[in-house]
């Protein structure tokens, strides 16, 4: 008789004192130490089964498949963060490339890799979580007056984008010119790396250099996105006409890291020295940051940031279409990202016959 079982997958954190997880661990240890098999192999001959996902048969390693589901759902949640959706449609960014670049940031939380501060900087830069004055005004309005502008130039609020456009000039610090110079180096390094792989005519160089993400004069929105580590889709789409995505991601990931190393050392660290000196002049100490608001604090006149999510109309079950497409067409789910496709949710099934 045919039987269909629906399996709901629930990820249980290790060592979380879940009673059933503890029981499963105990049974697994007992079976591992036992000299006798706990199940006769002949049993499986009478219980053939087929695993399906969204009515599609699964013919890959089940552990890898379950990991793919977890990764796909995590990426969708990441893409859905308001800090990203407020920038525009998810199609503006190459999330597969961003995912690859993130996977290359190994051990950023480890204090043994020699550069934990830089890895933290990269993550906070991507997430727009660097402690700029604008961010601090939102977090601690009782310490940082909402009327204060950039301590260096005093001409505009110091948000993330202002870090790269601040007109403040010192012999050792010129954020605007430094950012422009590093964008040019990043662009030229990309161009040299790709031309070293294949001989291309002058039109490739001209069109590549004219891409909006290299517009450092204003700078353009896509240039600021690239600075954060958000790969503009038009950049990789152009390169994909000449090179496979795997090659594109590998080259850009390495050069993006070098680009952000320069921003970290030549802009962010220098800015921090000046910013801490300015904080001291305002009477803001490390101890005062730990204390809560006092009666003499600045009134909180800042309103929380409003984000208009461009993913509001996009199914949060998009990951199902990614996984299903990878089963049908082959390849990793990351190569089948489509935020606009909707599918009816059909859970993982095990069919016995």
TrEMBL record:
Origin superkingdom: Eukaryota
Start-end of Polar residues biased regions: 293-309
Ranges for region Disordered: 290-309
Annotated protein name in UniProt: Uncharacterized protein
